[in-house]
Design brief:
499 residues, six-stranded antiparallel β-barrel
């Protein structure tokens, strides 16, 4: 039997509990597509940098918000998108997966793995564009971030939270400095992010292999985008890397991020801007190319203790053409950063590697990012090298030189020789201090210049075998006490007798 009252009761109950859910999707139409860009009609409420989704699942970022259409850059191949296709708003700003799960992985700018090691297990996401920490949220740069390269740690020191530009012509060793710095962070609890913008896939694969062999890949994430990929992916790559670094920095950790290189980044932004018909400025770059790099590099900071004291140190790389660092992009980035390491082809071909031009390079943080021991040996070194540069310029014109000038030139040559260093062999700060102390205190005067590299190598081995307490004392205290100096003098004298 059908009980009408029972059925009526159930219907009333369902009507009472009915909730109407209305989902509103704003959908637009593609009116033009090409060169990884699309113009879309109908997305009236879309926000700047918002993600939109095409019918085939590809995503794009809204860049140009015009009166009657929206200019969108497509994150991938635009072959399957055609005029008349539907596009919907996602309501999300472009974001990437973040967290320690990305360490040891090679990912693309969208945070998707490209190393064939399976998916990345993280449920944390962070928007790629974030506001940089304010003045109140920061503290001064005062802790050293050792690169392991004598010429840099002594003369152009880098501190945690600093932005130091590496600038020079093609093939002068810019990436080599960055890679040595990553290798030198082993055991120092510094996480590294290497952003390869428009680098060949073979170059990135070789780099990942090198880091793997040196045991550095376990604390490093590589964000890679090839030269053949969409300009939009090259444009967001450094911002994705910065978002991954910020997650660790706000977690109280120290991060080193390398952007290799921002010249290609600016070029990909220019390509997109011109295709979107934005008005061109100097060298055809859009007017906001300075803001593009300043908002990226300002995100590197040493956070205040209230925010956990984490840091993000940025080493942007810029490639110059024929040493012209008065071009638009180099001058822009020089004015944003806290100093630059300037590499020249002349030094590189003379065999001075790393080819750091000590006269033109500068660190605006200076001695506050050095230990007292390093500061003590770096002072005399800077002075002697400056005098040597001046004398060397005059010596080319003079035919006969007096004895003291010849001695000074010889000392300068010896110091320059000791600042040379092979690739992938970063050196501990205490070992650098021992070598530079010997050099600035006259212990290498009688050693032929050609044998100085051998002298430095063997002296460090001798010091660790016979006088291990000396480097240990320098490492632990960060200072050269009178007692340590006496022991170091004795060790140098003893070693030189047998060398």
């Amino acid at each position: 039997m059908i009980n009408a009252d029972e059925i009526a009761g159930i219907l009333k109950q369902q009507i009472a509990g009915f909730k109407a859910e209305v989902q509103e999707d704003e959908v637009g139409t593609v009116i033009e597509v090409g060169a990884n860009l699309a113009r879309i009609y109908g997305l009236r409420g879309v926000k700047a940098s918002e993600l939109v989704e095409f019918g085939n699942g590809l995503q794009g970022v809204a860049l140009n918000l015009e009166e009657d259409n929206v200019g969108v850059v497509i994150m991938g191949d635009d072959q399957e998108i055609k005029e008349g296709d539907k596009v919907r708003r996602t309501g999300r700003i472009a974001s990437v997966p973040v967290g320690e799960a990305l360490l040891g992985r090679v990912v693309n700018p969208l945070g998707q793995p490209v190393d064939g090691k399976g998916p990345i297990n993280t449920n944390k996401y962070r928007t790629i564009e974030n506001v940089a920490p304010t003045v109140v949220e920061r503290q001064g740069v005062k802790q050293p971030l050792p690169t392991g390269i004598r010429a840099i740690d002594a003369l152009i020191p880098i501190g945690k939270g600093q932005r130091e530009l590496i600038i020079g012509d093609r093939s002068t060793g810019k990436t080599a400095i960055a890679i040595d710095t990553i290798i030198n962070q082993k055991g120092r609890n510094v996480f590294c992010i290497y952003v390869a913008i428009g680098q060949k896939n073979s170059t990135v694969a070789a780099l990942a292999q090198t880091l793997e062999q040196k045991g550095a890949m376990e604390y490093t994430t590589i964000v890679a985008v090839g030269p053949s990929e969409a300009a939009a992916l090259r444009w967001i790559a450094p911002f994705s890397g910065a978002a991954m670094g910020e997650e660790l920095m706000y977690g109280g950790k120290d991060v080193l991020i390398i952007y290799d290189d921002l010249t290609k980044h600016a070029q990909s932004y220019r390509e997109m801007a011109l295709l979107l018909r934005r008005p061109p400025g100097r060298e055809a770059y859009p007017g906001d190319v300075f803001f593009l790099h300043s908002r990226l590099l300002e995100r590197a900071a040493k956070l205040s203790d209230e925010l956990g004291g984490g840091s993000m140190t940025a080493l942007p790389i810029i490639e110059t053409q024929a040493g012209d660092f008065s071009a638009y992009i180099p001058t822009n980035v020089i004015s944003i950063t806290d100093g630059q390491i300037y590499l020249t082809p002349e030094l590189f071909f003379q065999g001075i590697r790393p080819a750091v031009n000590v006269g033109l390079s500068v660190s605006r943080v200076g001695g506050s990012a050095q230990t007292k021991a390093m500061k003590g040996v770096a002072g005399p070194l800077k002075l002697e090298l400056a005098q040597y540069r001046d004398l060397a310029a005059f010596a080319k014109l003079a035919s006969d030189l007096d004895k003291s000038t010849q001695m000074q030139l010889l000392r300068g040559e010896k110091l320059t020789e000791l600042l040379k260093q092979p690739q992938y062999q970063p050196q501990a700060t205490e070992d650098q201090v021992a070598i530079l102390y010997g050099a600035t205190n006259g212990y290498v005067n009688d050693i032929p210049t050609a044998r100085l590299q051998d002298w430095a190598k063997r002296f460090i081995m001798f010091l660790h075998n016979k006088h291990a307490d000396v480097p240990k004392a320098i490492a632990e205290s960060g200072q050269l006490s009178d007692e340590t100096k006496q022991k170091l003098n004795a060790a140098l004298t003893e070693f030189n007798k047998s060398f």
